[in-house]
């Protein structure tokens, strides 16, 4: 453009045309009256509400999902009072009763004296973005769950066991309560694999895990695969007597299941040996000491002939 070219002249109607041709929905609220002085006609295409139905901020508030309302309104009021530009995501009500995810981008307009006199902004339909975000979060949760799950048996793995044991230890320490731990080993499992094959061995592990998990069925009890044919149970708020009762219940359930084990040196059925330990964390110690104590008692059970529980 040459230096003597005439300056461009853009009138209000052109600006309005440009605004109303976008997917974003422009709006303006006068702070003195808290009324809409303008909202783009795109609002009707998106939500079904006609522009003339947007009179005051109360219409904006009432057409917001009840679960989002308090959070968004409080935030926007605080930011607007402080003269701070801001953004807010929320679900907006459509005339058919469904909801659309909206992102409001808000700018504070000031007069010559520097006082806030109006809010102007754009509403954006972010429903597809939200669907993508929710899908990604769901996938992340599923991956996280898989990272804490034993791939063969479906119960918790050692990683989750260590995490839960540490957490329950801290909880028991604060509350001054007992925490119990059971180590469980399938008797003569190598012989089982040799006799029936490894695929049958995998199925046996899955069946034992299912039986034990349903026998210790309190919500906070955790069954985990410790390694190989060994499993572990974390029993919060459980003293030694109660923990031994849980162990006996698991042992009886496995006996009732009557899983054949013709190669066993102990029985013609699958049996287990268990070591039970209890600690009161408020008295000192560390979670590893509870595992070590249960492991020692499991060793005693195996040395004493297997198919038994040692709890002291």
From TrEMBL:
PAC domain sequence ranges? 86-138
User: InterPro entries given for it?
Assistant: Diguanylate_Cyclase, GGDEF_dom, Nucleotide_cyclase, PAC, PAS, PAS-assoc_C, PAS-like_dom_sf, PAS_fold_3
Listed under catalytic activity are: 2 GTP = 3',3'-c-di-GMP + 2 diphosphate
- Report the EC code(s) recorded for this entry: 2.7.7.65
Superkingdom assignment: Bacteria
Q: Where is the PAS domain?
A: 11-84
The record's section on PROSITE patterns has: GGDEF (PS50887), PAC (PS50113), PAS (PS50112)
* Database matches in SMART domains: GGDEF (SM00267), PAC (SM00086), PAS (SM00091)
Please list the coiled coil stretches.
none
Pfam families noted in UniProt? GGDEF, PAS_3
Q: Supply the enzyme class, top level.
A: transferase
- The GGDEF domain, residue ranges: 177-312
Q: What is this protein called?
A: diguanylate cyclase
